[in-house]
Write a structure and sequence with these properties.
There is one protein chain. The chain is α/β, with parallel strands linked by helices. The protein folds into three domains: 14-59 and 137-261, 3-Layer(aba) Sandwich (Rossmann fold), CATH 3.40.50.300; 64-125, no CATH class; 271-357, Ribosomal protein S10 (Alpha-Beta Plaits). Helix content is 27%, strand content 24%. The protein has nine helices and 15 strands. It has helices at 24-29, 38-50, 128-138, 157-166, 197-200, 207-219, 241-247, 251-265, 283-301; strands spanning 18-23, 53-57, 66-69, 86-88, 97-99, 106-108, 121-124, 144-147, 172-175, 188-193, 230-235, 271-280, 307-319, 322-332, 352-357. The strands form four sheets. A six-stranded parallel sheet has the order 1-11-10-2-9-8, with helices on both faces. The chain has a four-stranded antiparallel sheet with strand order 13-14-12-15. Strands 4-5-6 form a three-stranded antiparallel sheet, with no helix packed on it. Keywords: ATP-binding, DNA replication, DNA-binding, Metal-binding, Nucleotide-binding, Primosome, Zinc. One of its GO terms (molecular function) is ATP binding. Residues 108-275 form the Helicase C-terminal domain.
Length: 363
Amino acid sequence: PWTYLSLPQRVQAQPLPEVKVIDMRDELQDGNRSILSRPLQTALAAMKAEGNQGLLFIHRRGHSSFVSCRSCGHVMMCPHCDVSLSYHQPGANSAMTLRCHYCGYSQGHPKQCPECSSPYLKHFGSGTQRVVNALAETFPALSCIRFDSDTTRTKGAHRALLTRFAEGGADLLVGTQMLTKGIDLPQVTVVGIIAADGLLYMNDYWASERALQMLIQVAGRAGRGTQPGQVFLQTYTPDHPVIAAVTGHAYEGFIAEEWAQRQLLQYPPAGQMVLLRLSSNDPKAVEQTAATLAQQVMRHLEGTSYQLLGPAPAPIPRVARRYRWHLLVKGPMDEPLPNLQDLRHHCPASVSLTIDVDPLNLA
């Protein structure tokens, strides 16, 4: 048996912060090409004048999501993974590097495109480094602390940075999802969510749920003291259901709609799911093993309500030089999960198999 306990109010009945949605399409049409909207810039200037502090949240570390050639369209890719390299530059005078966030590979930033030799390489997307750089250009008087996995690698760095911020050592804390929980600072009155869209369109069945959790959590960092808080949520899709739920602090309606979709598709927790992840250094071996396992799984599912999706290449087909394939089994809650442990006997030594029940992500 279980009991659901709802906490609809803050401690001492403190008011929830006002969430203002900024349509970044309007900002662009009005000539603002900065990653900081005009309302957020105005709020940051007022925050500084009043002696308060703020948080800026973005879901990516680094400077930019990827680097592309404007002449031929070539994208700088990791040689070991099927993902683009992220651009990193800690400071204006620091070395420019390209890094893979999956296997750790890094290289220097090329001066010209390796495909067509064009010098016109552009950085697309935003990360914590780029936000800090933009702040330095727009608000040189604002001091910032960058708070992500790149700046908290060393022992004690996490606590040291938070302590420094709590003691007034900076005006702004700029970071990733590490900001969303555990920060209870009464002097924080402004929270800026730089690019909410990056959370809304992940390739997982529960991307919307996870986005709602994270956005509500980071919005809740504002106004925890005697002064009211403001949240500026920047997005290109202001009509998204998650945005509406965050704006009204109303997750009940979102949960009801999400639950209906999960029931229709038999996704957890309305159904059960098993993800079979296969990987190998040999692309042929892993593909053939995936086909063999699919035949074996179909035999296991005979006479049940479960269904098999796949086999298919994983959303990121190659990570750290290993090629990856997926098979997905899903079915109703009222039937026991099929026993798939004996599938390992059909895998050659060169192929690794992981069986993930109710996976938290499909990557």
